[in-house]
Structure formats: C-alpha cells, structure tokens
Amino acid sequence: MNNAGNQILNWLMIGISQSPNSLNESFYFDKKEEKFFSIVVTDYFMLDDNLDLAKNTTTSYSEQNQNKLVTLIKRIDKDDKDILFVPRLTHKERRDILSEFLSSVDNPKEKEKIGNLYFKMDGELTHFDKKFEIESSQKIVNEWNEFKDRILLSKAESFLNLNAINLNNVSIMDFDNEGGITIDLTKDDNGNEIVDEKRWWEFWK
C-alpha cells in the first residue's frame, strides 16, 4: 500500500477512536467527490441560523475551502445519503476491547491496576485513548497500543469494504492548516450593529 493509502487508514483510525459523545470533530466520506473530510465544532460558529456564512464572522479559510465547508455542512444537515459518517466505537465496544486486552495480561497486579482505572469509573468508559503510562509498565503500554491499533485498523478496513471504497481512488480534504474564525460581537449574524441600552460596566447589574 502506498503512503496516501496508509495516511487515509490512519485518519480513519483517528475518527473511529473519537469519544462517542464528543462534538469536537466529526469524520465523513463524500461518495460524490470520493473524498474524506472532517468538520470541527468551531466551523459552525461561522454560520447563521440558515447555515449560510454569517456576516459578522471572518475566517482564515480560503474562499474556496470556506464555500466547500458551508456546502458540506448543509448537505450533512439535509441527511445527504452520499455523505457517510465514520462510525465511532461505542461504549460497549470500548469495554469489550479493554476486557479482551486484560485477558491477555499475565501480571495480576497490572491487570488489577488497569481494571480499577477504567472499569470502576463512574459513568461510561469514554477515554479509549487514555494511556497507561502512569499506572503500568512500558511493556503493557506498548502491548495495549499494538492491540488497540489492530482493532482500529480492522474497523477502518471494514468501513472501506462495506462501502466499496477503493483507497486508490480517494483522498482527504485537508483543512487543518486553516480554520481560524473571528466573530464581531458588536454585530448580529446579518452584520447589523447590536444596540445595547446597558453600558459595559453595568453588565452584572
């Protein structure tokens, strides 16, 4: 496999390992354009209620990429069937994976440490990428990372196969080097000045 293919697999593995409840970044595949892309939560800050570019915001995206993002977000909002969401591991899958890994740990003390760290937490297990460096030996850390990556790679390949995606024909839309957004708080989404009867020092009154 070439470097581009490996890059896409690594990108998919990152998307699949995102916390199930996280809104920070969501990963997608556009079947029309045959491109992978991600939307970060701050991308929505540049839009008004109609998902058009708000007139009180400026971004560091190029005009072309800015327009691409707006179009993609609108298509996602309309449940466009040609845009596929990259599924994340569920809480149950995370627990099952960790349980399977623990069954391979020979050292009872190490096994107990990891079990206490994860399974006795309140609520769901969300920190799938949380590492064991503090509580565990480097050997256990390395074994966990290798085990976890094998699972993630298998999930990534399953996603590709299920959706008949050929790595030789696809690419990633990369917006990572752009994306700064500035909002003018003195104006509304339509670019009109906001009139506030209170003086700024009366805010807490």
Number of helices: 5
Radius of gyration: 22 Å
Please indicate the count of domains.
2
Q: In this structure, how is the largest beta sheet organized?
A: 4 strands, mixed
How much of the sequence lies in strands comes to: 5-15%
Mean pLDDT: 81
Q: What is the general shape?
A: elongated
Query: What strand order characterises the main sheet?
Result: 4-1-2-5
List unreliable stretches of 5+ residues: 200-205
The SSE order reads: HEEEHEHHHEE
Give the beta-strand count.
Answer: 6
* First-to-last CA distance: 64 Å
Given helix and strand content, the structural type is alpha+beta
Fraction of residues in helix: 25-40%
Structural descriptors:
elongated, two-stranded antiparallel sheet, alpha+beta, 205 residues
Q: What's the short version?
A:
The protein contains five helices and six strands, in the order H-E-E-E-H-E-H-H-H-E-E.
Could you walk me through the main structural features you see in this protein, from its secondary elements to its overall organization?
The protein is α+β, with helices and mostly antiparallel strands and 205 residues long. The chain folds into two domains: 3-87 and 165-183, no CATH class; 91-161, no CATH class. Helix content is 38%, strand content 11%. The protein is built from five helices and six strands. It has helices at residues 3-16, 63-77, 91-102, 108-119, 138-162; strands at residues 25-30, 35-40, 57-59, 83-85, 171-172, 181-183. A hairpin with a 4-residue loop joins β1 and β2 (35-40). The longest helix has 25 residues, at 138-162. The radius of gyration is 22 Å and the shape is elongated.
